[in-house]
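Subject: for your reference before the review

Hello V.,

The reviewers asked for a structural picture of the protein, and I figured it would be easier to keep everything in one thread rather than splitting it across files. Below is the amino acid sequence we used in the manuscript, unchanged from the supplementary table.
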Amino acid sequence: MKKWWEELRNSIRENGILRSLRARVFLIIVVVSVIPSVVMRYGILNNYEKRAVEVRAASVQNQLKIIASHLSSNNYLLNYRSQEPSFLASAKVIEAELEMLSSLYEGRVMIINGNCKIVKDMYGISQGKTMISEEVIKCLQGENTIHYDKEHGFIEMTTPIISNADPEDKNNSGGQIMGVLLTSVSADNIVETMEILNRKAFILESIMIISFIFLAFLLSYSLTKPFQKVTEEIKKVKEGAQEEGTLVTDYVETVHIVNAFNAMLKRMQVQEQARQEFVANVSHELRTPMTSLKVLADSLLMQGDCPAELYHEFLEDMVSEIDRENQIITDLLALVKLQNSVQTLNLVPLNINDLTEIVLKRLRPIARKRDVEVVFESNRPVVAKVDEVKLTQILTNLVENAIKYNKEHGWVKVVLDADHQFFTYEISDCGLGIPEEDLPHIFERFYRVDKSHSREIGGTGLGLAITKSAVLAHKGSITVSSNPGEGTVFLVKIPL
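And here is what came back from the structure prediction:
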C-alpha cells in the first residue's frame, strides 16, 4: 500500500492526477458510488417529506369536509348572527368540532363567506375582517389549494363550503360554493422527523462514503496491479535478467500488451542477430581477399629468384583479389546508400523499352562468353517516372545473375509489360534453379545458395539485397519462383 501511495503521489506531482490510471480508477469508483448515495439520500428524504405533507393534509381535509357539510346544512354563513336557540345549539357543536380540530392539529381555522369576510376565527384575531387572498379566491372559484411552508413549519389549505354538499363528493359538484374554510395546521412533527432522519441518513451516508473510498482504494490497486506487473517484467527484460520475453495473463489487455512487447523483442533480437551475422559476414568477406593477398605475397618472398612469368602470374592473382575486395566494398556502399531512410530518388520520365535495350546490350558480351542467349520481349511501349541509375542496377543484377547461374547453351528471357498503374519485368532463365528452402533467404545480405559455385563465379552475395532495396525505394515489389534444375523466374513490379 505504501508503494502504491508513493506512486500515486509521484504521478500527481509529475504528470497530474488524471494521467495516472490508478488515480482515474479511484476517482471513477468514488464518483460512481458516492454521488448515487447522496442523490438517493436527498431523494428519499424529499419523498418522505412530500408524502408526510400529503397524508397530513388529506387527513385534515377529510375532517374539514365534514365540518363544511355541517356548516352548509345549518346555513351557518347566513344565520351566524341569529340568536335562535336551535341555531345556537348547532353552532356550538360546529364550533366545538373546529376547536377540537385546531387543538388536535395545533392549527387555526377561519370561516370565510362568499364576500371574503371572516365570519369565524378560532383564534379570535381577525374575526369580522375581510380576507382577500389568492387561495381564498381560487377556492371560491372551485379550486382547492394546499401550501406547505417548510420555513415556518405549517400547512395551509382551503376547503369550500357548498350548499347541499355531500361529504363524500371529492369533486365539489352538486351545489354552489357559499364560503371557504381557510385552515393552517402545524407541520412541526414533520420537520422534527425530517431533522432526525436527516441526521441518521448523514451518519449512514458518511459511513458509506468512507467505505466506498476504502473500497475504491483497494479496487484501484488490485485492478491496476497487472499493469505494474507488466512494467516490472519489461524492466527485467531491459536489465537483461530475462531474454525470452514475458507473460502476464491477468487481463486480455495485458495479454495484448505483452504479446506486442514480445513480438517487438523478438524482432529486435532477430535484427540484432542479423546485425551480428552481417558484421561477421562482412569481416569474413573482406578478410578472405586480404588472406589471399598475404599468401601470394609470402609465396613470392619465399621463392627468391624466380622467372618473370611466375611473378606475372602471382601479380595477376593479387590484382584479381584486390578487384574482388573493391567490388565487395562498392556493393556494401551501394547497399548502405539504398537503405538510407533520408535518401530521395531522382525520378524522371524514361522510356523503359529503350533503357532495357541499353542494359541488355551491355550484358550480351558476358552472355556470349557463357554461350547464353539473352532475349528481350516487350508487350507494349512503357514510359514511367523512375530513378535511371537504380532501375539500371535492378535489371543489371537480375539479368547478370541469370547469365552467371545458367547452363551451357542456355537462355535468359526479359519480358516488359504494363497496366494502368504498374510496369513489370519478368526475368526468367533455364539455369540451375534455387532450392525451395533457400527461396526465403536469397535477398539477405551475403547469402549464397551454392557457396562453392558462387565463389568460382565471383559473386559477393549482395546483389539481390541491393536489388530488393532499389525496388522497395521505388515502392515496388519483387517476387521469385524456382524449380531446381529447371530455372528461376523473378517478377519485378514498379509503379508508373
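For the response letter, the relevant points are probably these. DSSP finds twelve helices and twelve strands in the chain. Confidence is low (pLDDT under 50) at residues 451-458.

Happy to draft the paragraph if you're swamped.

O.
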